[in-house]
Write a structure and sequence with these properties.
The chain is α/β, with parallel strands linked by helices. Helices cover about 35% and strands about 15% of the residues.
Amino acid sequence: MTPTPTTDEWGIDASWLDALDEEHEVAQATIDRLREVIGRPPADLEERAPIVARPGDVLEVDEADVVCEDGEVRHVDGELPEDFPLGYHWLHAPDGRRRRLIVSPGRCWVPADRRWGWAVQLYATRSRDSWGIGDLADLRALRRMAAEQGAGFLLVNPLHAVAPTPGQEASPYLPATRRFRNPLYLRVDEVPGADGVDLEEDAGRALSDGPLIDRDAIWARKREVLMRIFFAHGGGEAFARWREEQGRTLQDWATWAAIVEEHGGDWHTWPEELRSPESPELAEYVQQHGAVVAFHAWLQWALDLQLTAATGDMTVIQDLPIGFAGGGADAWVWQDALAEGVSVGAPPDAFNSQGQDWGSPPLIPWRLRDADYEPFIQSIRATMAGAGGLRIDHVMGLFRLWWVPSDGSAADGAYVRYPAEDLLDIVALESHRAQALVVGEDLGTVEDGVREAMAEHGVLSYRLLWFEDDDPAEWPAEAMAAITTHDLPTVAGLWTGEDVEEQREHGTGTDEELERGRTSLLEHLPGLADGASPEDAVTRAHELLSRAPSTLLSATLDDALGEIRRPNMPGTTDRPNWSLPLPVPVEELAGHPLLQKVAATLAAGVTGRG
């Protein structure tokens, strides 16, 4: 029988199970350190924290009046009526206390039909008109190509913003914010007002001449031209109206971005009077730097317009990273809810014997509740907005996160528990409102009960050919099925052995470990002759994938083009991760023979089982 970890009142598990179900004790020093970081919640937290419920549920309070989102006041007596409206309401108890009441349908929206689609690293997907990086106009072209092929969705890397400074963060999984988008993805000549400015487009297009994506050069060029467009055009009434509708949330982001340009990308190093969003001196700073603040707000307006045009009527599944940069905008705004001196990671496992430290500060669970779940709600809603789909990176983080003390290694951490039922119900509510499907990335060590809870809430699982021992025909229907991810070998890289050679070059394992890993993955690719070509291997992999009965079948553009290099190789610091462009421009994708074959294979798999 599998032992159950003991969780203390701080939510810390005293032990943890590895992938082989072996139990490991957490050092008392780690527990003491995390208790100090978490702190004790206020005595009345349970009386003021949000109530998350479903219509028909019995409540924690007896009689109360509820002020609904639309202003209607409804009286409840011990339980919610079956017809109670979904949404974010305020419950007023007879003793005068007010607390948030979140009413969820309990299940995410799930499409009625099966679909196949492309997984896209948008930055890598350049066209001849791109300025060094794939942009939202390229996404629009991809969407049109996919629709013509019969695809039903696109899955894109996180598009969230990073600090607008030199030394641009390359990883899409360490953004400054999970609520706003990266202006690197703007197609400059389609920004409102661009037709009145000399864009010097040849210089912009020349940024694509290099073998890698140079984000610093691209941002310097785009910022200079976008700033000229902004001062010449300004967005007019349409921008002013949109900016007012966004309110404080947008203002905080734009203010942070403006300060970053002067004082650097980590708010901890700013002048003390600017380190708090509530600082009285901040208003004076905004007044003095109003044009730069307005510029960063305007960039988000332009991004909103272009994303809407890019996605059209197709489901575009956007990726939600597990966290955000500790010096970034979200950390600045929500600093009171963040754990200081720790970061999120993963314990040692079969793929990484040292464990992992991902660098993002975690939200303290009780402080997240005390903040009425706003940091979580805003991140889910903003990432889901306007595209019809959400992929939650490391969905196990809704249940527990591995906290790594800053003065120790990743192996010195411990799991801290989160209110998973509440968080899943919030995801379901946002999914219901946006009519957006939700995929949970449940790869790696998944504790008992997680996938059952995901299924109960309509969150699709994530199944990979490289990881699953069962025939794809036996995979669950409530899942997104794929071959690989951005962190794992491409089919061609695996088949040719080039991926192992690159791993060896970067010292990610011993020769024996690397060859054993390759042999293990090749076992998931049966039915190929030893001398088969990389194209044959790609075709075979997608034939296997097409047998899965899963709701979504996903193929990467990297695989469909026979790309040998994976987008990211974890554990490397001297490799150009997240900076490798695809070998074929967007204009030539539709006519690529291997890509056509992959599309036809997956389309046949969906229609054959539909």
